[in-house]
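Quick one, tokens below. Sequence please?
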């Protein structure tokens, strides 16, 4: 087969595949609608909405250019449009990585990652108008001849993007909570399915020179949008309200149905009808599921409000009783009622200690309840995280020494300024250090602080018994008391780590643990530094 490297052919024409309208129009409409919808309705994660919008624009442009090529008779027009497809393909893949970062982490990526993305795309942009992109035109088959090196690099970016997203999702999945794990899985599965289909069809088309196969890769986008729609409806991803999600499903059904006005072939009409039917059934099931979930949330909210009132009432009453008896014991020890016999004084001391523990327990429950209900107003301002750590370590040294524990600090040089409510952040860190001392019988407790890329990492490591897999399941949950923790501390309420989690997340950070039975535990807190 000979290739004719010529400037123009005005009579060039390709037989249009029967599925062209169906494979191109619905995916372009759906992704554009989603992109605009999330951009306008998303109030929680605007950056993710913007990135998705750009993906929808680039994908729709790719579909438009690729679809237009099938109708062109001029080789010059074909080559011009064909030369743009590689850049759009690579950009869609790179932006997909960016999108996954912004959805999972709910923040922008580092400048270094942006540089990496730019470096990956730069060769594509520079080589786009050169012979390395398209080397000529095949007049026999009426198609452009793609440069082998340009093809290889373009698909290298596609494969790297898929692997990157897969590794990123796995790393975030390991550290995420149960509900977040489900969302990460659905998001990554949806977007990887799209990128795999898209890449497979493009690579197969280039290698076999049968470009009809590229239309099948476009079906990956509706699959990705279906997963995204489920995330929005089920988990309120992007914090889009129920009414908006119902409008989303309804509008998609209308858009798909509107294709009947311009689709002429019987095959495309059948396929569009099937798509419309499946969309209607899926939309109805989602809407019904959401309605039921909203009703359950409303009932749960009423129950939580009632429970909150009871907790505060009972806690304040009990705390008042503890406070009164505490005063009595304190007066007895001080000799207000006369000199007590040694045995009586010892009993009064135990009573005072017991009352103090009771008051601490009630304060822990009340604080957790207030934090969970959002009643706490944080006074956020720049504070020195290192100073907070130093105060806590100094405060806990005596307690550790009494137990025969060694307490050490490992704080690297750096800027540890964070935007925080000093009181509540100190409460959270104090809780973690206190637990390390409390649940360690021998050995040492190590408190560390070190700067990392775009974050500050605090950790407290102990040489205690470690945490069993069973007990790990209830860590950081409301009332989550492990069996081993109860053996060590019968007064454990299970609200300490629960409060820590709420406080740290309110500071836009995260907390987690790493532990093995017999090897101690390490609790980590990651906070964003204050931007200069």
């Amino acid at each position: 087969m000979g290739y004719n490297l010529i400037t123009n052919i005005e009579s060039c024409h390709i037989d249009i595949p029967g599925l062209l309208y169906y494979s191109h129009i619905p995916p372009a409409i759906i992704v554009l609608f989603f992109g605009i919808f999330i951009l306008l309705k998303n109030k929680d994660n605007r950056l993710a909405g913007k990135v998705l919008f750009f993906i929808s624009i680039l994908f729709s442009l790719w579909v438009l250019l690729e679809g237009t090529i099938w109708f062109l008779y001029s080789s010059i027009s074909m080559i011009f449009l064909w030369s743009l497809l590689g850049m759009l393909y690579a950009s869609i893949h790179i932006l997909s990585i960016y999108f996954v970062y912004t959805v999972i982490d709910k923040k922008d990526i580092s400048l270094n990652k942006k540089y990496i993305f730019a470096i990956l795309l730069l060769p594509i942009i520079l080589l786009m108008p050169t012979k390395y992109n398209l080397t000529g035109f095949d007049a026999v088959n009426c198609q452009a001849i793609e440069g082998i090196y340009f093809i290889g690099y373009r698909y290298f970016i596609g494969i790297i993007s898929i692997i990157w997203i897969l590794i990123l999702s796995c790393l975030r999945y390991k550290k995420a909570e149960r509900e977040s794990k489900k969302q990460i899985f659905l998001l990554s599965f949806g977007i990887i399915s799209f990128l795999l289909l898209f890449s497979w069809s493009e690579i197969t088309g280039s290698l076999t020179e049968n470009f009809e196969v590229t239309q099948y890769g476009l079906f990956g986008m509706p699959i990705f949008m279906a997963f995204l729609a489920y995330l929005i409806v089920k988990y309120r991803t992007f914090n889009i309200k129920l009414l908006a999600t119902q409008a989303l499903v309804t509008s998609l059904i209308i858009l798909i149905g509107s294709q009947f006005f311009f689709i002429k072939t019987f095959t495309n009409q059948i396929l569009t009808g099937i798509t419309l039917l499946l969309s209607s059934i899926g939309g109805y099931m989602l809407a019904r599921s959401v309605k039921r979930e909203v009703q359950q949330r409303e009932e749960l909210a009423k129950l939580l409000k009632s429970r909150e009132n009871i907790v505060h009432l009972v806690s304040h009453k009990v705390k008042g009783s503890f406070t009164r008896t505490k005063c009595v014991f304190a007066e007895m020890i001080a000799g207000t009622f006369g000199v007590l016999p040694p045995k009586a004084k010892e009993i009064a001391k135990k009573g005072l200690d017991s009352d103090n523990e009771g008051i601490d327990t009630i304060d822990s429950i009340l604080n957790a309840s207030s934090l969970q209900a959002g009643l706490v107003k944080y006074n956020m301002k720049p504070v020195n995280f290192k100073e907070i750590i130093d105060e806590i370590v100094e405060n806990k040294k005596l307690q550790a020494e009494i137990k025969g524990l060694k307490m050490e600090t490992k704080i690297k040089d750096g800027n540890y300024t964070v935007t925080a409510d000093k009181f509540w952040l100190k409460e959270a860190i104090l809780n973690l250090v206190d637990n390390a001392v409390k649940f360690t019988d021998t050995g040492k407790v190590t408190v560390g602080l070190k700067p990392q890329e775009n974050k500050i990492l605090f950790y407290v490591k102990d040489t205690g018994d470690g945490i069993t897999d069973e007990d790990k399941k209830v860590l950081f949950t409301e009332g989550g008391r492990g069996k081993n923790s109860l053996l060590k501390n019968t007064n454990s309420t299970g609200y300490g780590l629960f409060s820590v989690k709420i406080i740290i997340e309110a500071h836009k950070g995260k907390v987690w643990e790493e532990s093995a039975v017999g090897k101690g535990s390490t609790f980590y807190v990651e906070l964003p530094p204050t931007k200069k």
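The CA atoms of residues 193 and 304 lie 40 Å apart. The two ends are 63 Å apart (CA to CA).
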